[in-house]
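User: My advisor, Dr. K., asked me to get a structural model of this assembly before our group meeting. I'm new to this, so sorry if the format is off. These are the inputs:
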Amino acid sequence: MGYTKDQLLARLQELKIDFTCYDHPVVLTVEEQDKKHRLYVVSALEGTKVDMKNQGFKSKQSCYFHPLTNDVTIVLSSSNLDKFLISIGKQPAYVDLEASPVVGKDNPPDLAHLVPSDTPISSEQPVQNVTPANATHQNNAPKETGKAKPKVQGKGAGNSQSKVDKPNSATDVEKCVNDVFDTFMSRFFLSEVSKKLNLTTEELSSKLDLDGLRGLVAPELESTMMILKSASYTAGFEAGFETMLNNGLKGCPSRK
Amino acid sequence: MATATPAAETEVKEEEQVVNPWEVSAGKGGIDYDKLVDQFGCQRIDAALVDRIARLTARPPHRFLRRGLFFAHRDLSEVLDLYERGEKFYLYTGRGPSSEALHLGHLIPFMFTKYLQDAFKVPLVIQLTDDEKFLWKNLTVEECKRLARENAKDIIACGFDVERTFIFSDFEFVGGKFYENMVKISKCVTCNKAVGIFGFSPEDPIGKYSFPPVQAAPSFPSSFPHLFGGNNQLRCLIPCAIDQGENTKMSASDPNSAIYVTDTPKEIKNKVNRYAFSGGQDSIELHRKLGANLDVDVPIKYLNFFLEDDDELERIKTEYKEGRMLTGEVKQRLVEVLSGMVARHQRARAQVTEEMVDAFMAARPLPNMFG
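Assistant: The format is fine. Below is the predicted structure of the whole assembly, which you can bring to the meeting.
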């Protein structure tokens, strides 16, 4: 479910977050802003890219954001920004964008641990107003605004889902085992066998100890499926490795 | 003033139980677990803790927990506290790859670790200490590395999740941040302390002295920058076994003392029937009258570990103890259970390729490790 600018602004008011609001003609790039605005417009594509806020933000009184539309800019302090982020269950992380850590075999990107490991549920595209004069620029300046902020893992209580997180279900072997068993048992085995034996499915399932059967079958199924998963992953891993080795980044399709 | 006679001295020594990295021997009456818990500064895993684990993981606790086979812990409550708050942790376990032959006893810590991985949905690092085996055994470096990879295949066959598991061998992986942590750890422990803990002697090669930090380093998340970045706050939970002894002593050097993952159903049946020490009576009449001694019965001990159904286990124990069930019947059930387990392991093991080992052992990111 997408949100509108008015809903967002109403929410900020609910949270008693002070901000100033400026209506203006659509602007698509920072360069088109008044040059005396020293700070950056934050833009984050929800879920796919992660943009870190500059450490310079941290103590600033005036941070500028588009509230789900690019014909309005709101100004608020970084502490109010934190307030809003925490209210939507995201833990803000301030990093130094000007630092250039060495990234290599033993040094993965130092902010890697801040990137959320699960794919967030995608929402509708936020509203973007384009005046006819700027239509040609649209393809080159994808400044969709969103409100995705990185979740800090490990420490911090930004994660509202605690004990049982939703895993990426396509690779969840346990879930797959249960699905297969339930489908096989209820849809096929029970219905077909009960027909052959002239019983109703209820009568047949009450005679069988389905839970006991599940207990016997599940470890076997799970072992087989886990090996299939490992074999598939291995094939993918090899393929990716060979692609990079032989063709570099050019070998990988572009998402644009 | 008479000094104690040698006989008396030896008697005293035999009564003490010994538990250290290279020797586990029981005093009279078997391993005293309460003493062990005290000696290692642990606490018992009680029913309340097992319940808590079940609640937090939304599933029944593993039979090793239900039956008190994993019985002691340090700081497990703290880990559960942080998990309940939404924080994460990772698992660390390992194996010294000294032989190709793995028996069921070797699999137990891995079976339990797999359960922990599935239940808590957390990542796992598995250390294969090929360097340790090189230092302590008469093996070449190449042989140790080869054994590490072979053992990795059996470990993979236990069913670990490739999206959450990093297996590494010391010879291949040590370096970088891992090595930095090793050196930092080695600066914290004096020679005296190491000798006190590990019993080194001045004649031992210095490699032995410097090995323990290798096994300590995986407890620190910063040792694995490709997994955890520079995060040094992530807690680590380490499941481990004390290398069970008692009178069921399984030893990789005595093929009849244990069930191997390579055994055929016929071999399993033969070993259980001929070599598993029975607590039953010598004749059927006597057995019906007196029942079995469960304390010394090996098949019952194995069933305790490997039979999943609690109700069935209780029924067998009761019937056997009361003499209504015979040794042969108990052994038959055990053969069924073990054959099933070993067959399943072998099926999975047959599918593990060198490429799969490469994938598990690659220092790759695990983006779904907490998912």
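One thing worth pointing out at the meeting: Chain B touches chain A through 51 residues (CB under 8 Å).

User: Perfect, thanks a lot.
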